[in-house]
Amino acid sequence: MLDKSQKPTWTSFEEATQADWDAVMEYEEAYNAALPERILDAIRSLDEAWTPYPINRYQHSLQAATRAHADGAEDEIVVAALVHDVGDILSPYNHGELAAAMMKPYVSEKCHWILQHHCVFQGYYYNHYWGGDRNARDKYRDSPYWEDARYFCHEYDQCAFDPDYPTKPLEFFEPILRRVLSRGGGHMELNETAAD
After folding, report:
1. Residues 76-130: pLDDT tens digits?
2. Any signal peptide, and if so, which residues (predicted)?
3. What is residue 184's predicted lDDT score, i.e. its pLDDT?
């Protein structure tokens, strides 16, 4: 049990003992149990006052998730639609990679791939207006998830800017998010071996 009154005395990982690492693991388990709240806060932070879009990124995220849910998508895809733009907060030019990294311990390879690549797939709808290649997504045609990413972007993302769409509130998605985050997870580096 972690004795919160004692400050650790080690100053580098090399000095830490098994007891020190046990205390770190106990702390991390408690801290990581609050991950759903931190993700929900990140989603709420997308609720900006002004945007050049018809609705802001918070409303867009809720609408994308609502569309996925209404389409009967599996829970992890609904959650992917909910969190796909959360990376915009810290990493606007590669936000898909940030969202994918955040969700990787909890979702399938397919869902991770969709999140990671949704930006280039979305580019189909606007890249040509900015001097880019709208067909850049075609370089991924050999992926078994190409069609899944195209579908995700076409059916849930690019169309989720309708101010009149009957969008569900964030509270509706909280139990779904918690279910997905309750899968697996943990320290992915512990799954790595020298034989890999």
Report:
1. 999 999 999 999 999 988 999 999 999 999 999 999 999 999 999 999 999 999 9
2. none
3. 72
| One-letter amino acid for residue 13 of the chain | F
The pairs formed by 126-131 with CB atoms below 8 angstroms and a separation of 24 or more are none
**Direct distance between the N- and C-terminal alpha carbons of the chain, in angstroms, rounded to an integer:** 34
Other CB atoms within 10 Å distance of the CB of residue 179? 15
Instruction: Read off the pTM.
Output: 0.90
Q: Are the C-beta atoms of residues 122 and 109 closer than 8 Å to each other? A: no
What are the Cα distances from residue 152, in Å, to 29, 65, 78, 109, 155? 33, 10, 10, 15, 6
Measured over the CA atoms of residue 99, residue 103, residue 109 and residue 110, the dihedral's sign is negative
